[in-house]
């Protein structure tokens, strides 16, 4: 049965003959729109490459925050859990400079009730990152704090769709749907908290292992943090990866412009609007005549917003070609 069937009260189940099969190569060659949409849904191999943009995002958060979008930078600063004076100290050491704001860092910790004296000749920034705590103890305490910060972020992400999109199913099976929402909230919050806390843990371990702090060490230290994405549901991994990919590319282009490898252009300031318009056009085109290329949860949302179309949607061009060939 179609997973988009009666359980959400949207449409009756389809026959087994209508089960959707992946696009064949001839289909994709004949239909450029399907090829574009397929390219927007990478395979597992592409996913494994995309998630490594977590490395760049985390490195940019530490080394060059001004290359990140302001709203995303604010999000990272909140969940990164470190003051700007601490990040500046780590940045100075990573760039091969002496830490110029030791007094500001000491005053920051003193305002939080921790009296610490930093060594001006330090080679690794562990004492800057987590004052008198050990690296392992800091990981545990930071993980707990990060989880508390992540819960308010993901609670509406799961519960609002349950209340709006799945409102009919919520009346029939409230315990099951609410339990799934709470489980998803807990799981996604764990992902975000593990990602943030493990980033500091891995960088500390590398700093202590090689007894130095530089830009390659920061990049290598953020590399294993992307493994935290395995905590998330498979269906959400690619969404998060693509979002980070967009932010990483935006930051990368900004850095290339700053160092002079790319020309500055004021004509591309609203390029995001152009890209959004093109993406919306592709989505609405496929929604109108190739509905079976969508995942069920996205199709449910589109149907809820625009209304379920009349029965002709069941005979899309791709289904017609399949029936003709049989």
Automatic annotation (TrEMBL):
Swiss-Prot/TrEMBL keywords: Membrane, Transmembrane, Transmembrane helix
Protein's UniProt keywords contain Transcription: no
Protein's UniProt keywords contain Aminoacyl-tRNA synthetase: no
Domain of life where this protein originates: Eukaryota
Protein name: Uncharacterized protein LOC104248762
Residues forming coiled coils: none
Chain's gene name: LOC104248762
Protein source organism: Nicotiana sylvestris (Wood tobacco)
Transmembrane portions of the chain: 35-57, 151-170, 190-210, 240-261, 273-289
């Amino acid at each position: 049965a179609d997973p988009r069937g009666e359980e959400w009260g949207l449409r009756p189940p389809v026959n087994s003959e209508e089960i959707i099969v992946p696009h064949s190569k001839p289909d994709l060659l004949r239909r450029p729109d399907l090829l574009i949409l397929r390219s927007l849904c990478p395979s597992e191999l592409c996913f494994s490459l995309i998630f490594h943009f977590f490395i760049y995002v985390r490195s940019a958060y530490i080394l060059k925050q001004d290359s990140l979008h302001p709203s995303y930078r604010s999000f990272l600063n909140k969940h990164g859990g470190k003051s700007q004076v601490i990040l500046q100290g780590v940045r100075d050491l990573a760039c091969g400079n002496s830490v110029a704001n030791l007094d500001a860092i000491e005053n920051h910790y003193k305002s939080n009730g921790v009296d610490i004296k930093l060594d001006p000749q330090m080679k690794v920034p562990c004492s800057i990152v987590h004052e008198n705590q050990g690296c392992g103890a800091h990981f545990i305490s930071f993980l707990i704090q990060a989880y508390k910060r992540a819960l308010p972020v993901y609670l509406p992400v799961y519960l609002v769709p349950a209340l709006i999109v799945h409102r009919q199913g919520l009346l029939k099976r409230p315990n099951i749907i609410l339990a799934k929402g709470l489980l998803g909230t807990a799981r996604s919050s764990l992902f975000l908290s593990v990602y943030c806390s493990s980033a500091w843990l891995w960088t500390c371990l590398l700093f202590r292992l090689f007894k130095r702090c530089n830009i390659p060490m920061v990049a290598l230290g953020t590399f294993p943090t992307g493994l935290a994405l395995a905590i998330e549901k498979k269906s959400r991994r690619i969404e998060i990866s693509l979002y980070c990919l967009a932010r990483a590319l935006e930051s990368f282009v900004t850095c290339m412009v700053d160092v002079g490898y790319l020309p500055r252009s004021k004509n591309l300031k609203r390029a995001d609007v152009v890209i959004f318009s093109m993406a919306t056009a592709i989505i609405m085109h496929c929604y109108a005549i190739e509905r079976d290329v969508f995942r069920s949860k996205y199709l449910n949302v589109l149907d809820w917003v625009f209304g379920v179309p009349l029965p002709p949607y069941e005979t899309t061009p791709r289904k017609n070609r399949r029936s003709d060939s049989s």
